[in-house]
Amino acid sequence: MQNNRLVICCVTILCVTVGLLMFDGVKAYLNESPTLADTNIPLPGSKASDVSDTTASNSSPVVDTAQHIRRAYVDPSIPIQPILPIENIDRAKAKIGWRLFKDPNLSSNKQVSCESCHNLQTNGAEQIPVSVGVNGVGLRNSLTIFNAMNNYRLFWDGRVNTLEEQLEGPIHNPVEMDSSWEDIHQYVASSKLYRQLFAEANLDITVHTIKSALVEFENTLTTLDAPFDLYLYGQEDAISDSAKRGWFAFQSEGCIACHQGPNVGGGLVMRFGYFGQDKTGSERSSDLGRFATTSKPEDRHLFRVASLRNVADTAPYFHDGQTQHLSEAIRIMGKSQLGKDLDDKTVDDIQQFLITLSGKRPSILEEFENE
Ligand code: HEC
Ligand code: HEC
């Protein structure tokens, strides 16, 4: 008798659990798969096969719709996805990160802030070939921090995968901030301004919260609404005919094999100088890329595929910052990564396409500046 009851009880619990799981699954499926048939918003005209049809439809109302609704209408088979707005940001925490980012007192000589090399007024990077920090000149061109949170790998050689790990680089590097978390913690904990900001954000001042405030701030730095993203959302006239030809060439020539994802790069690590060493690899600089971290012979000249978001605004180019013009960078890529001498018209079209990858300055910066 006792046993029978136990069996019935177990079977009932099992049925309810399976039922609930199925209900949840169906709900998630329905939520995540809105179909285009539910709406009369036009399909984005951005597939390679459509690109030659440059006379196609006029602007669509999609652009005025909320970002999170628009995202559902982007064709997932296109290997470049729009930059999405950030969600669930702890604003008070991000604001502490903004202060810390701009604060030269975090460095050993109290003169170098993160912003010294990552200009928040312009492009999130700097205009000189290689960065200058506390103890002189570094080895590499500074990377933009705009959209960095979308990069699967970080640094020119892709040696770390998270913004938290990345932070250890600049803080300790003698040619960057030459500092330590103990010193930074001591300084922040004794500052009246930071004590107030941390209290407002309901946070204790610890090394962990200092780091996570910096990361929270970095997570807000998306550059939305690049013309190419509007085009992906279905606004045909957001980019010129030349840029559309460039987008087509970017795919047909093979750039897309490496530069893809929301950041049009930032995910893979590849040899710089696949086809010969013309102004690439060892002829370009003594920088051995990933080899410097791993010491594996096969890692010589391996670099992260650069993100091409806002690339028109982040000259000079490549890890050594030795290439001034975007057109030259495109030519070098054609030769070294694809073994092709791209003709002038193709280079120009690709350049027009790359220009459409520049988005708006992160809006939170202006908000913080005006508060
Ligand atoms: C002295 C100049 C300098 C300072 C100061 C500096 N950086 Fe950088 N930053 C660089 C350079 C150069 C690189 C690329 C280095 C490399 O790839 O080896 C870089 C790379 C990065 C990246 C990686 C971006 C990507 O797409 O991979 C992030 C994120 C970043 N820095 C954030 C910060 C933060 C946060 C601070 C302050 C705590 C800071 N930086 C201070 C010069 C600097
Ligand atoms: C085999 C992979 C691969 C292919 C194909 C490729 N790239 Fe790259 N690209 C890279 C790597 C790796 C880097 C970073 C090089 C470095 O470390 O300096 C890069 C960097 C760039 C940069 C410099 C970005 C910056 O901020 O300095 C541009 C511009 C660029 N690529 C455009 C293109 C174009 C246009 C094509 C097609 C003609 C193309 N790439 C094809 C791997 C590739």
TrEMBL record:
Where are its TM segments located? Answer: none
Q: Which UniProt keywords apply?
A: Heme, Iron, Metal-binding, Oxidoreductase, Peroxidase
Question: For the region Disordered, what residue ranges are annotated?
Answer: 41-60
Record GO terms (molecular function): peroxidase activity
**Polar residues: bias regions:** 49-60
What SUPFAM superfamilies does the annotation carry?
A: Cytochrome c
Record InterPro entries: Cyt_c-like_dom, Cyt_c-like_dom_sf, Cytochrome_c_Peroxidase/MauG, Di-haem_cyt_c_peroxidsae
Q: Name one Pfam family in it.
A: CCP_MauG
| Keyword DNA repair assigned | no
Principal place where this protein is found?
A: other
Q: Which residues form the Cytochrome c domain?
A: 92-192, 241-358
Q: Which cellular compartments is it found in?
A: Cell envelope
Membrane: is it a keyword of this entry? no
The name on file for this protein is Cytochrome c peroxidase
The major lineage groups are: Bacteria, Pseudomonadati, Pseudomonadota, Gammaproteobacteria, Vibrionales
